[in-house]
């Protein structure tokens, strides 16, 4: 084997490896690239990136945001949903502005992974009618939720009471629709009915009625059974009486007297 052979046998795999690495880098743009339609400014005060994607006609949240994003502005776009865990990995995200979009619903894991660092979350001027009851529960951030067509029900009540700064947020939640007609157009906080208890009371009544039904059935069965047995016992006794009398042992006589 010549020296050239040895060199070739080692360098060809190296070349292939390098080539595939370059291809991979091209296919999966690194997480720190600025998404299309956004401006990413490094800010020494922030110790991270100031990412602005406002007014960019975005239909969805860019999937690969720079991991050192501190401020993220996605306002004035056409974003309709916040996919589960979309912000996971943004370990130093402090402010998230999703105002003036078309979001309709928030799932439990919408803000998963950024609960500890996020300080401000603007969801105002969207189309949110409902959120999962735990969508905000782990967030420490101040949440802004005004100007959404809220549907006031038990789930919303649970979601709002799970917010750290729930009073301010709840004060600005207006019910566009509600389980109770007279609450439409009113601030959520002015709704003095416990909407969850209302639902609970309804199920309680249903439960009571069902239980009563079962109880009545059991009672009527017992009554029927006892009647039937009385009849049987009487017939049995008559049969015994009709038998030709023969000398009985004392204990047998006792038995019959107990039955009677
Ligand atoms: C972030 O960048 C935008 C422009 O892209 C600018 O208007 C804004 O003031 C910046 N915010 C901070 C806190 O530097
Ligand atoms: C979010 O963006 C909107 C639109 O630019 C702005 O009016 C609002 O003040 C921002 N929210 C926060 C909390 O800065």
From TrEMBL:
The keyword Transmembrane helix applies. InterPro entries: Leu-rich_rpt, Leu-rich_rpt_typical-subtyp, LRR_dom_sf, LRRNT. Residues 33-71 form the LRRNT domain. Keywords: Glycoprotein, Leucine-rich repeat, Membrane, Repeat, Signal, Transmembrane, Transmembrane helix. It comes from the Eukaryota. It is a single-pass membrane protein. Pfam families: LRR_1 (PF00560), LRR_8 (PF13855). One of its GO terms (molecular function) is signaling receptor activity. GO terms for biological process: signal transduction. SMART domains: LRR_TYP, LRRNT. One of its GO terms (cellular component) is plasma membrane. It is found in: Membrane. The chain crosses the membrane at residues 205-226. Residues 1-32 form the signal peptide. PANTHER family: PROTEIN TOLL-RELATED, TOLL-LIKE RECEPTOR. Belongs to the LRRC3 family. This is Leucine rich repeat containing 3B. It comes from Cynoglossus semilaevis.
């Amino acid at each position: 084997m010549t020296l050239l052979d040895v060199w070739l046998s080692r360098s060809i795999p190296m070349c292939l490896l390098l080539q595939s690495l370059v291809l991979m880098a091209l296919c999966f743009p690194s997480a720190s690239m600025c998404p299309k339609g956004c401006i990413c400014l490094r800010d020494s005060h922030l110790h991270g990136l100031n990412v602005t994607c406002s007014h960019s006609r975005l239909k969805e949240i860019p999937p690969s945001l720079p991991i050192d994003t501190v401020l993220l502005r996605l306002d004035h776009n056409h974003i309709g949903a916040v996919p589960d865990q979309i912000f996971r990995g943004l370990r130093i995200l402090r402010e998230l502005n999703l105002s003036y979009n078309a979001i309709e619903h928030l799932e439990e894991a919408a803000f998963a992974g950024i609960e500890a660092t996020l300080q401000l979350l603007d969801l105002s001027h969207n189309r949110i009618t409902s959120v999962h009851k735990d969508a905000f529960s782990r967030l420490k951030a101040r949440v802004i939720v005004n100007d959404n067509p809220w549907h006031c029900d038990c789930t919303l009540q649970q979601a709002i009471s799970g917010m750290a700064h729930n009073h301010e947020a709840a004060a600005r939640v207006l019910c566009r629709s509600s389980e109770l007609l007279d609450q439409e157009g009113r601030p959520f906080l002015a709704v003095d009915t416990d909407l969850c208890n209302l639902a609970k009371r309804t199920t309680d009544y249903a439960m009571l009625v069902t239980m009563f039904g079962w109880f009545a059935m059991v009672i009527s069965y017992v009554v029927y059974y006892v009647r039937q047995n009385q009849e049987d016992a009487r017939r049995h006794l008559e049969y015994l009486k009709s038998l030709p009398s023969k000398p009985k042992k004392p204990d047998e006589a006792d038995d019959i007297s107990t039955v009677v």
